[in-house]
Design goal:
CATH superfamily of the largest domain: Cupin
Largest sheet: 10 strands, antiparallel
Number of strands: 18
Number of helices: 10
CATH architecture of the largest domain: Sandwich
Radius of gyration: 26 Å
Shape: globular
Distance between the termini: 29 Å
CATH topology of the largest domain: Jelly Rolls
Order of helices and strands: HHEHEEEEHEHEEEEEEHHHEEEEHEHE
Number of domains: 3
CATH class of the largest domain: Mainly Beta
């Protein structure tokens, strides 16, 4: 029997999704003590981690060491291996990692959703639910050791305890719901008393809203946990999109009056003119178009479908059947006289005929290259399709 696919519901079980958003999301921490060792074994196990560190070809910065709140320089635990005229750079020195781990160092495996399919699937499902990007970092700490010193994160945090045990001290926020432009600085922590101390065992979960200070320690047991981070879009981001339209009206491109910064009599003038400009901009703004543009841009940056290498590569011909990308996963953006195709967080400049051809191709979920009518020649259409397949925009079905 196939193991269940993890999603937001199974992470929060037995708390319902609606209750979570009504009571906890961005408001307060949530510990879940399940008493179900192995709850996350279909996602990741301690044995998996041992294999990744011992035998995989993950290199710095895919493997990092930290102690006392600071990361080691990579040369402290990696080496370069010569192979003929080439060098493999940043290869983990597992013997050195073992030695540092035995002395209390934490092993961090950032961005594990890039290489571990189960975590990639979970992050993709969470992103589909939230519309906010999700990532997965893994941390392994030996027994009788401290993890990172008190700090807060600038993303929402779900801690999945996959093995061992870890004690969390949680402190009230010093910055309420920090934006990602407001990272933690040590000066923000001033010896506060914790508001909660929670021990997570294998199978447990802890949700922490961004801004909540936290620190960790282990006792006689080692700890391995996955941190799922949700990097949220905020109203600040929507307002930033709105302010981009301020370049359009000519009255906002007029120079400030000469001497505006040094002559006090200009301060009330600046205030009056600024308020007037904002009022005028607000009345002239097309908020429906703004929201549509922002949400389309967010959808266009969603994680792409995973690509798979095939040793027996199939040549794409006019008779090939192609699959279009998911609805909303791309958009066309006009930048002056340029037309840009935005997909997977990247913008590609395209000509008007190419844009028309792409629109024709994506009108159906699947299509045969020969059957699409567009302004391009057969050779031009084939070249475009092969390029779109290479960037993951189109998928070859057969």
């Amino acid at each position: 029997m196939m193991p269940p696919l993890f999603d937001l519901g199974s992470l929060l079980n037995p708390v319902g999704i609606e209750d979570f958003f009504a009571i906890y999301w961005e408001r307060q921490h949530l510990p879940l003590h399940r008493r179900q060792p192995g709850y996350y074994e279909s996602l990741l196990t301690a044995a998996d981690l041992e294999g990744i560190i011992s035998h995989s070809d993950a290199r710095y910065p895919a493997i990092r060491l930290a102690k006392g709140g600071n990361y080691y320089p990579p040369e402290a635990y990696t080496r370069n291996i010569k192979h003929g005229d080439e060098s493999f750079v940043g290869v983990p020195d597992v013997k050195r990692i073992n030695e540092e781990y035995a002395q209390g160092a934490t092993i961090a495996l950032p961005g594990m959703q890039r290489t571990w399919p189960a975590l990639a699937g979970l992050c993709n499902r969470l992103q589909a639910h939230f519309d906010h990007p999700a990532h997965a970092n893994v941390y392994i700490t030996p027994g009788n050791a401290a993890g990172f010193t008190p700090h807060y994160d600038i993303h929402e945090v779900f801690v999945l305890q996959i093995a061992g045990r870890k004690r969390w001290s949680i402190y009230a926020p010093v910055v309420e719901l920090p934006h990602r432009s407001q990272p933690f600085t040590p000066q923000a922590y001033a010896g506060r008393a914790p508001i909660a101390q929670i021990t997570l065992d294998d199978g447990d979960l802890l949700y922490l809203p961004r801004g909540f200070l936290h620190s960790t320690t282990t006792s006689d047991s080692f700890s391995a946990h996955v941190t799922i981070g949700i990097t949220v879009y905020t109203w600040v981001d929507v307002l930033s999109e709105y302010l981009k339209t301020a370049f359009a009206p000519p009255y906002l491109r007029k120079a400030l009056p000469p001497g505006f910064a040094s002559r006090a009599e200009f301060k009330p003038v600046l205030k009056r003119e600024l308020i007037g400009a904002l009022d005028r901009l607000r009345t002239e703004a097309d908020f429906d178009a703004l929201i549509a543009s922002f949400t389309e841009r967010v959808r266009a940056t969603h994680a792409p479908r995973a690509a798979h290498f095939k040793a027996d590569a199939t040549v794409i011909t006019l008779d090939s059947v192609l699959q279009s990308p998911a609805r909303g996963s791309h958009r066309f953006v006009e930048e002056g006289e340029k037309t840009m195709l935005e997909f997977d967080g990247v913008r590609y400049q395209v000509t008007a005929p190419v844009a028309a051809a792409i629109r024709a191709m994506t009108a159906l979920d699947t299509f045969r290259a020969r059957d699409r009518e567009d302004p391009l020649s057969a050779d031009g259409r084939l070249a475009l399709i092969r390029h779109l397949v290479s960037i993951g925009f189109l998928t070859l079905v057969r």
